[in-house]
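INFO  loader      accepted 1 record
INFO  loader      residues=356
INFO  predictor   begin
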Amino acid sequence: MNEGEKGPEAAPVRQRFISELFDAISFRTFLLVLGVLLVQMGFVLSYVGAFHHPTPHQIPIAIVAPATSSQVVGEINNVPGYPLHAVSVTSEEAGRKLLGEGSVSAVFIVNDAGTSDTLLVTSGGGASVATAVQDVITRVDAAQHRSVDTIDAVPAQSGDARGLTGFYLVVGWLVGGYLMASLLGVSRGSRPATTQRAIIRLLSAVPYAVLSGLGGAIIITSLGALTGHFLALWWLGALLVFSAAAVTMAFQVLFGVLGVGITVVLFVVLGNPSAGGAYPPALLPPFWRAISGAIPNGAGVSAVRKIVYFGAHAIGGNLLVIAFYGVGGVVVTVLGAGFHDRRSSKGLPPKTIVAT
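INFO  predictor   done
INFO  writer      dumping tokens
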């Protein structure tokens, strides 16, 4: 049989293949895959955008220079790019108090009687920030033909390499929270069938969160990564896990299966690079620096460091942010489930962006 005779037989085969293709890959599936592609590209953009060029921006430091205070503050605050924000304090004791509270990242003590100054830093608050401050102060002193000795006044614990343990701990807690809620959606439907079911899901997240917080605290303590503050870290972890689970459930109620993707965007694409892991917010570009404290990732990392290294000073704002997500997730989940419950009782289909 020649090629011309094969033509009429091949056409139905192609038609059946195209028909099977469109039957196997629906328009809804195409949209979901497109969404995954966009999230993937967003992941690359967010991480590379945040980390490709860390630059210090107005890192707070205290200046102890009784005789030349205003002059030194002015010189440091006018360094090109404004990497540091200096304020004058009356004594080394006052500077160390601010340093111990985490209110400043360094204390620069000027020796008016000589040419060798002292810089106190806190690697426990982030090794990259301490290094950035040291580099700027060294350049400033070198321009004045002076030298500087650096002392780590609040060092990271021996098991907390470069202060990253808190970051990975918080990421682990948050991942557990949204995976638990996502799996409940996979096994029982992304949207709870009734308001009662929604409340049961939320209540099931409570013991999970408590156990997750406890497990994380046990692991870091047994490994010697972060020692002390066991109870505080346990309950911080429980709050983070529950907040992540509640937010995930809320997105699922609102958007069905797409809610899981939106959760990933919030906690992974935006939350992780802005959280202050390898580079604390003061070294990140403006967008990631601005959102850092407004997402549980950044609020959680900051809270861990404050608990472990700074006596939990000024931790209230971080806890409020995390609690806001938890309470908001609960409210949206219950109200959203009630709305869909009422529609269902009237025989109407669930209202969502993409049918699930």
